[in-house]
Every structure is written in structure tokens, then in C-alpha cells.
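User: Second chain of the day. Same drill as before.
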Amino acid sequence: MTMSPSVPDPDRPPPAFLALDRWTWREIAHLLVNLPMAIAGFVYAILVIAVGVGLSVTVIGLPVLVAGLRGARVLGRVERGRARSLLGVRIEEPSPLPSGRQEGGVFPWLWSGLKDPVGWRSLLYAFVRLPWGVLTSAVTLVSLIVLWPVLPFIVRGLTAADRAMVRGLLPPSDELERRIAELESDRGVVVDTAAADLRRIERDLHDGAQARLVALAMGLGLAKEKLTDDPEAAARMVDEAHGEIKVALQELRDLARGIHPAVLTDRGLDAALSAIASRCTVPVNVSVDLPGRPAEAIEGIAYFTVSELLQNVSKHSGARSASVEVWRASDRLLIKVTDDGSGGARMGGGSGMAGLAERLGAVDGLFVLDSPVGGPTAVTAELPWRDRAPAGSRAS
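Assistant: Same format as last time:
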């Protein structure tokens, strides 16, 4: 007996089978529910258009129409959920409309609601579905009784039209709308990353330099007390304090380097990456070919990306050599880090690769890992190129 796939392809209807599998039954359920949903949507669309447009000459007409369009968005969300659960069609949810307070008043809120393409298309979807709902429900009921041998093929054809309607009328408004949704998600990643960095800096200060400086202050206080009674002991304690100061200063330098190294600010990526490479446990060849310096934020992300990757090379790769290449291609900054180690690196292997990919994605970057078992490993990172602002404009 031929078995159907367990999961349908959301972009292509699954093949029909003579046997009524569970996906065919889901499609049958979708078609039977079409009629009550179409009646409810049609009545709602008629009321919104009649009341909103009819009262548009009065003060309350436009607010009623805007409220109706926002309600149509809810109907669209319900229909997308029904298509997702019963037809396997996955449509991205559009970005929510801002509230009146976010828009800055009633009139901007009215204007954004009136020009909302998602609301209008959802209302159009509800309006045109009535005849289709009547047709599909009637054909499905008749086929269940007298045409059941070919029912799967009939159902598949009808739901193909349903899938086309959902994809055509209920997706986000356009590429800009989808881009806004992506940026909202990326903003969450940026906020989480910044919070994690702040917690790391606070922890390093509290557990490292701060604790060492507190102990140093206590030691100097004891040395002060012994200065007259036991000068030799006081001298030893001052000598120990001097050593502690050197260690604390080194910890503060390391912490500052982790925030933003001075060499990157003063001399750019070439010198900063060479400094990272000199601290790596394997020989690293650095090649930077840039026509100028990118924006500070892009330059910082590029620096910390290479720093993290070279730390992975030192700790996990078992490599004998590595290389770092940085260059500009059109409006993109490209980074390639390779090593001749044992390979086998994975995005979720606890090596920080997933975190790097999220950080790059948050600024419209890309992260590609190629690390077959046995090596070599090549990581390519791509960032948008933005020109560096002049010093005068930054100062102002």
C-alpha cells in the first residue's frame, strides 16, 4: 500500500492518493468550514463598508472604518492560522499597526489605518470568499456521498485554489513589510546581546579588578599602620601591593580591550587584527585590503567577529596555521577566517558560532560555516559597508 508523506510541503500541495490520509481529511475539514467562515467574513465586510463609508461624511465615520480595517486584520490572522493548521501553508504575520499614542495623535492614527494594505486585502478576502465557500462546501459534501473514490483529487484541486487565495491576499503587504518584521526580530537580538555584554562587563569588574582593588586598599591600610612599628613588614606589604596594582591594571586593560580596543580606534582594522593574531596560539596570516575605514559600528563588529573566531581556532581546532582575510566587495565588507585544523565545527556545538551568526544577522550580515570533519574549516562573514562619518560630524 502506498503511503503519503507525513508532512506536506508548505510551498507545494502534497500529491493526492486514492486512500484518504490524514492530510486529505484536514483539507476536507478546511473546505467544509469554508462556508461558515465565508458567511461571517462577508457579513463583517458588508457592515464595515456600509457603516464606515456611509458615515464617512460624519465625525465618527472614519474612526469606524479604521476600526473595521483593524478588525479585518484579526479575520486575516484567523484565516492564516486555519490555513497553517489544515493546509500546511505558512504565511508570515504582518507587523502590527502602531497605536494612536505611538502615532502621535488621532489624525496620524486615522491615516495609517486608512492606508493599511493588510487591512484592505483582508477585507477583500472576506468579501470575495462567500461564493467560493458555498461552492467548495457543496462540492465537498456531494463528493463525500457519491464521488468518494476520487474525493482526494477533488479536494486537492479545491484546496490548491484556497492556498493561492491565502498566499495572494493574506501575506504581509510587501517586501518592506517583511523587512520591518525582520528588523523587529533583529532589534530583540541586539538588545539581548547588549544586555549580555553589560552583564559580562559588570561580572568581570566585580569579580576581577574591583575585588583586587578592595584587597589592595585593605593591604595598604595595614601597611600604613605598620609603617612606624615594623617598617620591614610595611615595605613587604607595599611591595605586594605594587604587584597587585600591576595585575589589576592588566585586568583593566584586558577588559577595555574586550569593550573596544584602543588600537582599533587609533589605527583601524589592519593593526587591530594583527594584534589579535599575535595573541593566537597558532601562526595567523592577516590580509586586510580596504579602500578606507568603515563605520565605527561595522568596524567593531568585524573586529570582535575575528577575535571570537581566532579564540575558537586556539581552543578547539588543533590547527597548525590559520589565515584572516578582510576585503570590500561593492557595498559589503567580507571576512574569511580559515584554519587547517581537525574541522567538525557546528553552529550549535557550544563554540559561539550561533551567537556570532545572530549578531551578524542583527545588522543585516551573513555568516557561513564550512567545517567538514577532518578539516579544513572556513568561516565567511559578510557585513554591510557603511562609510565612516567625518570626525567633525561625530563630534557635533
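Confidence is low (pLDDT under 50) at residues 1-10.

User: Great, on to the next one.
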